[in-house]
Amino acid sequence: MTTAALLDLRDVSVSFDGFRAINGLSLTLAPGEMRAIVGPNGAGKTTMMDIITGKTRPDTGSVTFRGHDLTRLDEPAIAELGIGRKFQKPTVFEALSVWDNLLLALKGLRRPHRLLFARLTPDEIRRIEGLLATIRLGAESTRAAGGLSHGQKQWLEIGMLLAQEPDLLLVDEPVAGMTDAETAETAGLLREINRTRSVVVVEHDMDFVRALDVTVTVLHEGAVLAEGPLDTVSNDPRVIEVYLGR
Ligand code: ADP
């Protein structure tokens, strides 16, 4: 017997003005899995994430998460089901401290002035401290988020998503613009998160994908071209042709 998939995209297609951005895409994520998605520009990676989060509705095919049909739900309902998405550009409250950014996320508050009325329980304090440790910002908790490095802002935003306790975290190009040290640290950070949550990471940086050490799905022209360990897919002649044009 096979374990039920956490996330299952089956034969999904979507067109924009007659152009098939996603063309018969099928992808299955097991509970607890972390998956890396790679592929050249225009392969459909962003559109796939948009479909999972309800931003874009597929024309055909099915998308299920823990058995729920996501194609019938809007973005807030999908987030409520336990899917969190980290976009490429970090959107933290720059004037607020790292701690207050996490507190806002934990309380589900959208407006900083609401913090004035927020009371913290001991459990919430423990959770924020746990998040700070996970995102490597324990020593920066009182610092304004605007003063963090680009990489630290990315980690803070990941922490803000984790505060909402998603079962599945979608991360879009997390290491773009990071230093080598931050990139290496981010691989460890995501592996740590993956101990308790499922993760889908879209990323171009192959050293980073190697460090994740997970199954890689190569997208091309809106469908899966190859899937497997990085060493296997990177030696696949079809993948080499797509990347190198030979
Ligand atoms: P990737 O993230 O892999 O670079 P995208 O999912 O952004 O690829 O895009 C896949 C294809 O769909 C591209 O050719 C892109 O130009 C096209 N596309 C994506 N979104 C739209 C849209 N809203 N309208 C028209 N074309 C789009």
UniProtKB/TrEMBL annotation:
Signal peptide: none annotated. Coiled coil: none annotated. PROSITE patterns: ABC_TRANSPORTER_2. InterPro entries: AAA+_ATPase, ABC_AA/LPS_Transport, ABC_transporter-like_ATP-bd, ABC_transptr_urea_ATP-bd_UrtD, BCA_ABC_TP_C, P-loop_NTPase. Transmembrane segments: none annotated. Keywords: ATP-binding, Nucleotide-binding, Transport. CDD domains: ABC_Mj1267_LivG_branched (cd03219). Residues 7-246 form the ABC transporter domain. One of its GO terms (molecular function) is ATP binding. It comes from the Bacteria. The keyword ATP-binding applies. This is Urea short-chain amide or branched-chain amino acid transporter ATP-binding protein. It comes from Asaia krungthepensis NRIC 0535.
